[in-house]
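Our preliminary data section would be incomplete without showing what the modeling component actually yields. Below, a chain of 158 amino acids is followed by its predicted structure, encoded as tokens that our downstream tools consume directly.
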Amino acid sequence: MMDYYSDMTGSVDSSMFANKSFNSLQTFTYRRARTIRHRTTLIREWNDLSKTSIHAVFRYNSLGQNPSYRIRDDYRRQGNQFVGKKNLAHGEINENRFRSLVLIAQHRQKMNWMQSVLVGGFSVDASPNTAWANYIRINKDSITKNIPVTSTGPIVFG
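Predicted structure:
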């Protein structure tokens, strides 16, 4: 099991990288990963020639984030003029998750004919995936250009 949370302080574009300026205007972007893995195996040796194995696997994976690369200022240059609101930014929080149930069964039968082995089995994997994204409106400080934690939309992964 893993439950990992990290602040994502912002993105660096090519001009920021060239100028060695690694400042971030976002103060609340994050990434959260939650995972669970479990496997159970049952092995039965019927005799020296026959063996059956059954594996059951459960996986859960969730990645929620408020990525800095999805945050855009509303106030922007359009042609020769600026349009939009100086104290507004737009963003997106999103999550992608799946649960897997897997069953793998295999039987191995040794044969005397040409010292051969016959192997047969099957596997079933049910791994539905869901994803969602929510738009958020973010109030920012137009003087310092910092985007504070307060926003008009949800910003916390739940």
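Helices lie at 14-18. The longest helix spans residues 14-18. Preliminary results of this kind motivate Aim 1 of the renewal.
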